[in-house]
Amino acid sequence: MAPDPSLPRAAAPFLGFARLLRSHAFAIAPERITSFMQAVTLLGPRSMNDIREAALATLAPSPDRRGEFEAHFRAYFHGDAKPSIEGEEDDETRVKDDRGTREEENQTPRQEKGGELSSAFEQLSSRDFQRDSDALGQFRRKLASALPARRSFRTARTRSRGMLDLRRSLSEIVSADGDIPSPLLRQRQTISRKLLLLVDVSGSMKQHTAEYLKLAHAAVQGADRAEVFTFGTRLTRITSALRIRDREQSLARAAALVDDWDGGTRMGPTLLAFLSVPRFSAFARGACVVILSDGLERGSHAELEIAMRRFSARAFRLSLATPLAGDPRFRPETAALSTILPALDDLVDGSSLGSLTDFILSLARPAPAAASIWKRVS
């Protein structure tokens, strides 16, 4: 990236370091970059440690990414050949946004064996979706009215049971030469909450990916505000592709956007990458977040636990729909699932379109927390 000609040449390395961190999904606002360069100016600096301390104080990496931050600092300023970050270089999570020209387009076996196919290695491939009968039409028509609602800060005119619209009422009095007409009232609108679908496209979910994407297309077509992301070893936003009305064309475009079909899975890192992008994180705020995944995390599940707790703090309702729950013998007893269970509002069966559509259409109805339900089942 070419340096900004308006900046002094000495400032270019510091701006470049901040850009490097942002390219690796660190959440760094422009004001922090400005503060970083101002801190370096105030410190002199007399040593590389001064620059490091200024970066830590102003760019403020989260504690769970401190080691990664240090590795990038050494690589950038000290010339290390390779950042000494835990895991291989291929473990870097890439984020892909399908903005395009617009900002905002099989019978499942009851005994699942997803764990045998779960892997942390990246494998890039493509996917082709075949046309089938539109069994999701009823779901699409019901979705907008079935989602939980909230009161908006925007108001609309009403004839009764509203608040006085003082500005327009006074305007009416002035236009009527002082006569007092009937007061004008306004009422806060009620709108549906956002729906955020995060679809696992790793190899262990290969049997379910096609149906999940059809469900996601119906959700985008039916809901007032819906967002869809896929994740495996990478994170890809496919909402714009799913806005295309024709499902076959829409899914074909989505298939072209996603590079990591049927590969490995890095559930924790990809969900943290989602949360590290402010615009993406805003999609989860106050939304119904449904993660379609088997929840099988290879290696350490610490990042997955952190991500789920952050999602729980932002979302109105956080749900994990796993096809493994289609087996009556299923229990959330793996290390990852037992750790994230307290953060979940729902842990439900995701083994069929019928169970998924019924669950999503019931999101407006209150239900006991997932941990309490599965504690009784166990």
From TrEMBL:
Signal peptide start and end residues: none
InterPro entries named in the record: UCP010256 (IPR011195), Uncharacterised_CoxE (IPR008912), vWFA_dom_sf (IPR036465)
Domain of life: Bacteria
Compositional bias annotation for Basic and acidic residues: 93-115
Ranges where the record places region Disordered: 80-118
Pfam families: VWA_CoxE
Gene3D superfamilies from the UniProt entry: von Willebrand factor, type A domain (3.40.50.410)
Name under which the protein is recorded: VWA domain-containing protein
Species of provenance: Mesorhizobium vachelliae
